[in-house]
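Hello,

Following up on my earlier ticket. Below are the two sequence lines again, exactly as submitted.
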Amino acid sequence: MQTGDTAVTVQKSVPVLRYSPSPRSAPQRAPLREAVLLVRYHLRLLDRWPFALMALAFLGCALLAWAQAQSGTAQGLSTANDLSRFVLEPGAGLFAGVLAGSLVVSDPLLEATMATPTGIHGVVIRRFLLTLVILLVCSVAYLAWSLGAGITYARQQSPLYLLLVWLVPVMLMGMLGLFGSLITRNAALGMALAAVPLAGSLFLYAPLLPIQAAHLFFVTYTYSGGQDASDWWANRLSLLAVAMALAVANLWLLHREERLLASRP
Amino acid sequence: MAVVIERVSKRYGPLEALRDIDLHIEQGMFGLLGPNGAGKTTLLRIIATLLRPTSGRVLVGPFDLGVTSQRNEVRSQLGYLPQEPAFYPDLTGREFLDYMGLLKLLYDRPARRRQIEALLDVVSLSADADRQVKTYSGGMKRRLGIAQALLGDPRLLVVDEPTSGLDPEERIRLRTLLTWLAKERVVVLSTHVVEDISQTCERLAVLDRGRLVFDGLTHRLIEAAAGRTWQFLAAPGYAVPASLSIISALPQSAGTLYHVVGPSPEEHGPVRNVRPLPPTLEDGYVWLRRQKASNDLATLQSTSATA
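Thanks for your patience. The regenerated structure is below:
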């Protein structure tokens, strides 16, 4: 870079600095190939290690369940069923919480992203949906394998039933992880908060079981033995409603950019 | 387009970061000066739609930043370089700009990439554009941040300390670029480097502890120090009196050559060769700060006397 040439170089460059879209290609919504390109960037920018850990966890659990199912005993098959219910219900939920908790606060580009028309909320929503898709792919692969191996989740396991076994904890804990990280502006606290209902549901299941109203809020109702209970559907719908309420709260918090910036210098 | 700031205050709990700021920023370069903690970054973040004032309002062109939909309109015309630009370390410089272009809704791929190439050229990163950002030096990252801010032809460019970490040639080049860009847009520049403003901004504002202490033409602030800027040679061991603010002290064989702002030093004893200097913006800025400090002291004394 030569100082003497500076003014000349800049003068020459300024006209071509302009973004000049062709008149027929300036859409407000991203054309498919630009949307795909953006998804590819988001995939690269997601922290890959939690996803690798998740894939390994699914694989490890599949091997364990296979080994139990291969034992040929009723006890072995029952253990494989329990393990599979754990993987698809609280296991998937826990991963959703951990991954969602890390979406915002640890993003180094927070401030510059906020000043774009997409905004930080646009980026987080896209990355959360991508996280869900990746989790869904792992879960569907596990489900297909487990059903093929003769593992059962409930007496009446319709596709909707199986979807809700997975979707409810994933949405609830994912939203809770995101909510925790937005409220505390701390990714680790968000992840920890996502695990609280899981721990409560696992450790307080027996003492809370006699209380009928508590059934609506068991996150691990399928895993803990309530898979055929008459109020299982009510449980799923009430948890889904809580997840939706958290989603609204998260959207509101994502638009409170000043709160997020407070964690930055 | 103009930026109009009307009685803007910003509080963080008990801390008053800005108080009753009124500014009218027209097309061209506008400088913001002030010491650390003066509220420059808070004001820039308000203009850049990231913070909302506690009271008052900000208009960017016809858009009121207090209205969400209008704030989004401003973002589509905004280029922003934060004080501490951060990057995704695994992306290359070119990929980073492409990603930011998509976030800025620049969906025409050929046009976006043409602009990226031009920007990389202007910030002298063409040769390193395919290297990962984590391999960049501090100055290269700063230049990449500037290129990011210029993506999409923003009509309002808000840059916080853009020349920090740049070498002298890069600094000159960036100043020239900003001056050119300011011909067609509003450029708000905040910096600690007084020379950056004296070389580029026709108008400036000076903030001090959240208050506006100067708003006007740059040459007015320079003129404020006229007749108060001196140079003299002092013998070793000489202590500069508190009434003078030292701009520079250059050790020489016969003593120290001082450049000061304040009342004329008396030429006797260790002080020799006293002569007036034409004032610079730095002199004006230091004189303004001195005046502000003595006014504050006078106010404090009169308050104490009344009490």
